[in-house]
Structure formats: structure tokens, C-alpha cells
């Protein structure tokens, strides 16, 4: 127990949800989103609330920023794969648990496609910029990563040190 609150990342429920319990969600399957992508105001926003409302652009930006902060942490730990498709099951599970803890609406889909699509769309450019090109990794990434993850965990009252599995 820290800060008067017991917290274990393993307690984050990653069990699949059932579509029948969320009838207002339009994009339960990736194919639902893919078939309507051209009609959407912003096709990069594919996450919905349980009421079927598309999340705000800011909320999507927060998800992407948080994901990049996680990838920064994985890189610092020496476990960030060159391609997201090469991520180990353990790394993917960590990523899913952290993302679901901060953004539970990402679970409103079949087979984790929404949280995985964030990685599929954004991990390659993150890896290319921060790892391959090595843009001042030691200074900029460390402060960026700590600022993102620390702020998020401060908001949830979760000490950063215990969030590593």
C-alpha cells in the first residue's frame, strides 16, 4: 500500500468485453471502422465511448502521447522492438494493461484492435525518430517520457516505480 492506495497493474481487467453489452458502439470490429472511414470527419479517430460517441481529438492525442511515453520507457529498459509486430507477448500485455488503465474506452472492441491500431499507426514513426535517428535520446526522451508517464500516474495516484511489471 502506497499513498493510502493499494495498486497492482495485474488488477487491470483485460478480459474481452462482449458487443451485446455495448449496443451503441459502432466500431466493435475493425472492419466496421474500415468500411466507414471515408465518411468520418477524422478517420484517425476510431475510439468511441460506451454511448457510441466518438472521443475528442484531444482524447485521441492523449492516448497517442501516453503510448509514446510507454514506448520511451520500453526503450529505456532495452526491450522496445524494431517493429511493433515483433513485440513479445509480455510487452504487448504490458502495453495493453497500461493503455486500458488510462483509457478504458479502448477495450470497447473485438480482439484489442483499437489499442493495437494505435501502436500500428504510430510506433513506426516513434521508433524511426527516437531510436533509429537517435534524436538527443538521453536528454529529450527521458524528460518527455518521465513528464508524460509521471503526470498520468500522478493523476491516478499511482507511484511510477510500481508500474513496471
User: Low-confidence parts, pLDDT < 50 over ≥5 residues?
Assistant: 1-7, 157-165
Largest sheet: none
Radius of gyration: 16 Å
The beta-strand count equals 0
Share in helix: 40-55%
Mean pLDDT: 81
Order of helices and strands: HHHHH
Specify the oligomeric state. Answer: single chain
- Number of self-contained structural domains: 1
Query: Structural class given helices, strands, pairing?
Result: mainly alpha
Ends distance: 16 Å
Task: Explain the overall architecture.
The structure is a single chain. This protein is mainly α and 165 residues long. The chain has one domain. The chain has helices at 30-36, 57-76, 89-102, 113-132, 137-156. Helix 2 runs antiparallel to helix 3 (89-102) and helix 2 packs across helix 5 (137-156). The protein is globular, with a radius of gyration of 16 Å. Residues 1-7 and 157-165 have low confidence and may be disordered.
Summarize the structure.
The chain is mainly α. The chain has one domain (19-163). The protein is 49% helix and 0% strand.
Task: Provide the descriptors you would attach to this structure in a database record.
single chain; 165 residues; mainly alpha; 5 helices; globular; disordered N terminus; disordered C terminus
Topology diagram in text:
Elements: H1 30-36, H2 57-76, H3 89-102, H4 113-132, H5 137-156
Helix pairs in contact: 2-3, 2-4, 2-5
Amino acid at each position: 500500500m502506497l499513498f493510502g492506495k493499494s495498486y497492482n497493474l495485474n488488477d487491470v481487467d483485460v478480459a474481452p468485453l462482449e458487443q451485446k453489452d455495448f449496443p451503441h458502439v459502432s466500431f466493435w470490429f475493425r472492419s466496421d471502422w474500415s468500411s466507414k472511414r471515408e465518411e468520418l470527419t477524422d478517420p484517425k479517430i476510431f475510439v468511441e465511448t460506451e454511448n457510441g460517441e466518438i472521443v475528442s481529438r484531444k482524447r485521441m492525442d492523449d492516448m497517442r502521447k501516453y503510448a509514446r511515453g510507454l514506448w520511451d520507457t520500453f526503450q529505456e529498459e532495452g526491450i522496445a522492438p524494431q517493429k511493433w509486430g515483433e513485440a513479445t507477448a509480455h510487452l504487448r500485455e504490458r502495453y495493453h494493461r497500461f493503455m486500458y488503465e488510462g483509457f478504458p474506452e479502448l477495450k470497447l472492441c473485438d480482439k484489442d484492435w483499437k489499442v493495437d491500431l494505435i501502436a500500428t499507426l504510430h510506433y513506426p514513426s516513434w521508433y524511426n525518430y527516437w531510436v533509429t535517428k537517435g534524436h538527443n535520446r538521453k536528454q529529450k526522451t527521458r524528460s518527455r517520457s518521465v513528464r508524460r508517464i509521471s503526470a498520468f500516474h500522478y493523476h491516478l495516484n499511482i507511484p511510477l516505480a510500481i508500474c513496471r511489471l
